[in-house]
Write a structure and sequence with these properties.
Largest sheet: 3 strands, antiparallel
Strand content: 25-35%
Keywords: Cell projection, Cilium, Flagellum
Oligomer: single chain
Protein name: Flagellar FlbD family protein
Organism: Cohnella silvisoli
Helix content: 25-40%
Pfam families: FlbD
InterPro entries: SwrD-like (IPR009384)
Shape: globular
Distance between the termini: 36 Å
Strand order of the largest sheet: 3-4-5
Radius of gyration: 15 Å
């Protein structure tokens, strides 16, 4: 679960595994696979960062690296 904030300031948690899209329109809209939508005050970068952090914490992204991850570790091709 990730923590986000509604426009009225109330915090709630969303199941990160159910998030289908995150849009900036200029408000951030989170759409779940169920079709339910939430408008939150966090920007899309913060929401995506929280999703990645959650996925790493449960081991889903443990073995996945991006090209920038391998470059920052000093790996050569």
């Amino acid at each position: 679960m990730i923590s986000v904030t509604r426009l009225n300031g109330s915090k709630f948690h969303v199941n990160a595994l159910l998030i289908e899209t995150v849009e900036d329109t200029p408000d951030t809209i989170i759409t779940l696979t169920t079709g339910k939508k939430f408008i939150v005050i966090e920007n899309s970068s913060d929401v995506i960062r929280a999703i990645r952090h959650y996925l790493r914490s449960i081991g889903v992204l443990a073995a996945v690296t991006s090209p920038t991850d391998t470059q920052s570790e000093g790996a050569t091709s």
